[in-house]
Amino acid sequence: MKCFETKHFSKRELECKCGKCEFPGMDKDLMDLLEAVRTDPDWNKPMSISSAYRCPAHNSNVSSTGPDGPHTSGKAIDVRVSGADAHLFLSVAIGYEFSGVGIAQKGSHGSRFIHLDTLTNSETKGPRPWIWSY
After folding, report:
1. Which residues, including other chains, have CB under 8 Å from residue 132's CB and lie 6 or more apart?
2. Cis peptide, bond prior to residue 129, ω within 30 of zero
3. Distance CA 85, CA 103 (A)
């Protein structure tokens, strides 16, 4: 099932940044988990989304995963977070059923993020659950 917005996340922040494609929506299971993190008593504050859905063309331009990366399925999202907030966010998110967690905490604080996804073993080239760093 596809999700186009939720109580705390708008269609605008979830759709592809290319500005040219039609937004097919995000995976509802992913968005349910993200809402659960957003409202978790240990976090319970706004999140800045740096990337959610990406069309195949845009994903090819911005990611090494090419035209069929996890963001193209609507099952992946990157949350802009750094420093102490990144530590807290990760500690909360890890308690939910995300199958992929990628941590990018190098460079300027504005470019740092934590990737979350709900891909299955059959949708990836490796086992799940999995955690990695960029």
Report:
1. 100, 101, 102, 103
2. yes
3. 13
Instruction: Note the pTM of the prediction, 2 decimals.
Output: 0.95
Give 10-residue mean pLDDT values along the chain (134 residues): 94 95 96 98 96 96 92 97 97 96 96 96 87 94
Tokens 């199958």, residue located:
99
Residue 132's alpha-carbon distances to 1, 14, 94, 95, 100, in angstroms, are 27, 23, 13, 16, 8
DSSP per residue over 14-52, as a string?
A: HS-TTSSS----EEHHHHHHHHHHHH-TTT-S--EEEE-
